[in-house]
Write a structure and sequence with these properties.
Layout (H helix, E strand, L loop, with lengths): L1 E6 L4 E7 L4 E5 L20 E5 L16 H14 L5 E6 L1 H12 L4 E7 L8 H14 L5 H13 L3 H12 L2 H12 L4 H5 L5 E6 L7 H8 L6 E5 L6 H4 L1 H15 L3
Parallel strand pairs: 3-4, 3-5, 5-6, 6-7, 7-8
Antiparallel strand pairs: 1-2, 2-4
Helix pairs in contact: 1-2, 1-6, 3-6, 4-5
């Protein structure tokens, strides 16, 4: 595995690359980082696997917020251009799935497939995201960690090792990075642009997900004609953590179905 960063002007975006073969680009959820994919990647040895940290997260720089979704998409685009990505499958979870939708609209030349995991074309109302950003700036990530884990894992998974890991990652997230991305989510409504997409797409939802309920993921996925949808039973908002082998199996089946092997 090799790691590096790409200069995006006032900030740098960190990434890592492993393996050879058709490109797969991974984008993570709000408050976490690229290591959410650690247990998924070993199941996909026949691909070049590219993971990025969103601005304000992980090893990427933390520019002053608020951020815009256009800026987050431009960061992913810069990683793809720097690494010579073409005809990739973009796997985006939660806000990472929003970035995937926007990148497909903007730069379809980069992508040949899209996996929308536990995501939506629009997340709630702007006021809730502005309120969350204000809370995190004032009190830090600890102020919402318990509530986030309840929604991510549900009562049956709340005490799991995956939930403990996610909590630790969330508490390490820079408050300004988290709040900045809240602003980007608040300003995004992709229902119309996503409905214009025409590329192979797979939607993945967890039946215990309290952040993006399955019906919301299904609704978003079915904006794209011909898209498939998979419900992972027993999983929450982060199936790459609570069921990585099953999650990877769904990815691999999708890759085979579209010839991305």
């Amino acid at each position: 595995m090799t790691a590096g960063s790409v200069d995006c002007g006032d900030h740098a975006i960190a990434y890592d690359v492993a393996g050879d073969g058709p490109d797969v680009v991974f984008a993570h959820a709000l408050g976490l980082d690229r290591h959410i994919w650690d247990d998924v990647l070993p199941h996909l040895p026949g691909h070049r696997r590219i993971r990025l940290d969103m601005r304000g997260h992980g090893q990427s720089d933390v520019p002053d917020g608020p951020y815009t979704m256009g800026g987050l998409i431009a960061d992913a685009e810069a990683i793809c251009d720097a690494l010579g990505v073409r005809d990739a499958v973009f796997v985006g979870l939660s806000v990472g799935g929003m970035i995937g939708q926007g990148l497909a609209v903007k730069r379809l030349d980069l992508l040949r497939g899209l996996v929308l995991s536990n995501t939506a074309a629009k997340f709630g109302q702007p006021v809730q995201w502005h309120d969350r950003a204000a809370l995190v700036r004032a009190e830090g990530l600890g102020a919402l960690a318990d509530g986030a884990l309840d929604k991510w894992f549900g009562p049956k998974g709340r005490d799991s090792s995956a939930a403990s890991w996610a909590r630790a990652q969330l508490l390490r997230c820079p408050p300004e990075g988290y709040a900045g991305c809240c602003a980007a989510i608040a300003g995004t409504d992709f229902y119309t642009p996503t409905s214009g997409l025409r590329l192979p797409t797979l939607g993945i939802a967890g039946d215990r997900d309290g952040s993006t309920p399955p019906d919301l993921v299904r609704e978003t996925t079915h904006l794209i004609p011909g898209a498939g949808f998979t419900l992972m039973r027993g999983s929450g908002h982060l199936p790459c953590l609570d069921a990585p082998a099953e999650f990877a199996a769904h990815l691999a089946a999708f890759f085979r179905r579209i010839g991305h092997v």
